[in-house]
Amino acid sequence: MTTTLSLTVNGRAEAIEVEGDETLLDALRRELLLTSVREACGIGVCGSCTVMLDGKTVSSCLLLAPLAEGRSVETVESLSPDGELHPIQQAFVDHTAFQCSFCTPGFLLATKALLDENPAPSPDEVRHYLAGNLCRCGSYTHIEAAVLDAAERVRG
What is the residue extent of each domain of the chain? Predict the structure, then answer.
């Protein structure tokens, strides 16, 4: 059964058609063409489908789209609405904190959530906080360096 879902996505009010059993990941990709939201594992353990729902990271592959009714969703596209890289994104570029980049959107949003909660994390706190994101290419040391650098950039 199709229903109209009203939510805010990346700061914009949206009304999208979803099936009752459709995931938020599928709805965002199909209806709004937000391809930074990616499915890798489909069971909520890799972090590739990470979005921020009301300011908290969630696995969009596990969340039924109708449960996002009236809520605020942020994808990685929200980090650079004007096309200019966010300091977190620039830190990832400067530290080559990616190879294939499939996991990068999830790491970027997890980093944003971490820095929103803790603007000066230690390396151990970074590793602990990002433990729900997997990088198949093994770029973890570069990712950690990028997150620590991003923290400094965001603090100003």
Answer: 2-78, 87-155
